[in-house]
Fold:
Amino acid sequence: MTASGTERHGAVATAVQRFRSRHASWVPVFGALVILVAMMVGAQAYFGTFVTPRVLSALLLDNAYLLILAVGMTFVILTGGIDLSVGAVMAFTGMLGASLLSQGLPTAVVVPVMLLLGAGMGLAVGVMVQYFGVQPFIASLAAMFAARGLAFMVSLSSIKVEDPAILWLQSARIQGAPGSFYLTPTGILALLVVLVGILVLQFTRFGRTIYAIGGNEQSARLMGLPVVRTKLLAYVISGVCAGLAGVVFTAYTGASYPLNGIGTELDTIAAVVIGGTLLTGGSGYVLGSMIGVFVYGTIKTVISFLGAEQAWTRITIGGLLLIFVVVQRVIVARSGTQRS
Structure:
């Protein structure tokens, strides 16, 4: 190799190293995307009819509620917290909403009530964490038990939803040519929540404060950033997303049941982590969380196509989660070495 060739090779290697060091937080996101594409390609090669408009449309619509929950969870985890209450809050708001609708209250009143209740539950978790020094795990666990108990207090049995406005959210189809990709209002709601989450985290002072708190909360305090208010709002956002997920899940199932959403909080956390958000906070993206949800949904769909037990979904997600946590630890360790 000539001297000029050696210089060019060295310059390229330096540029690649610089890009990797500056964009290390995107590496897990790209990893999740590679896994998603690989699963799609492999499933299409095996089944022959996997990557079709019908299956891809169902991938979004079947997981719209999980996508909304993942956006809210991303805000909380970025601050270094956790919210285990989202599944129970989704069930509680869904039960109360279905009960109010069955009593004749209009949808225009019921839906805001569901969102406000979700916000209230999130605020309660945030207050316990910020003002009483309770660990986020314990605070959100207490809220999870409370919300699940409130769901049972509304009714011990399933409540069928017959309100046309709620059912329209899932039944309406926005489609071009017959057989092409289609959307429902629930899918559009989920995508709008993702878009808003991206814009808030990437282009607002509130979003930059979220990252600063997750990176180093003490430094954020010394810089005069509104740490308490920002962390409270992060939990409120998670609660609002749980309330909205209650609306979407109720429309999806056409009924509410007190046991809805059991384990959903763990699915949400898994999707967010697989999407590249560090559990220690300070690094992650809503776009990555969306990819994580699609990875989760694709695994469920593949297992359904195979006719295997859904237990394999949990096993596969557990394996992926372990891999991504190890990758994150490696990235954090290397970043620390480069700083020193």
